[in-house]
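Notes from the 1:1 (GR / supervisor)

We went over the backlog. Supervisor wanted to see one worked example end to end before approving the batch request, so GR pasted a single chain during the call. The sequence is below; no edits were made to it. Supervisor asked that the structure be written out right there so they could see what the output format looks like.
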Amino acid sequence: MPTTNAETARAATEPATGLNRPLTLLGIYTSNDSARALIRRDGTNIMLDQGMPQDGLTLIGTGDGWAMVADGQTRHRLVIG
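Structure output shown during the call:
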């Protein structure tokens, strides 16, 4: 059997409830000319206005139950669960 590194071995033993979810979509609010999304990041709720960066995050777009958020060069497609 091949050997594995300590990080892989540790990750293999984590329960499903221990998954890393850095951003959680809590709600989407739209009007005729704008969109907002309420997200949770590291236990803090943040209201994002579309196209206006805040705390390093930018709301790119929204749809029926989802939001696309940029975190630097990373794009997150968040879905209300």
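Supervisor's comment: The chain has a mean pLDDT of 84.
Batch request approved.
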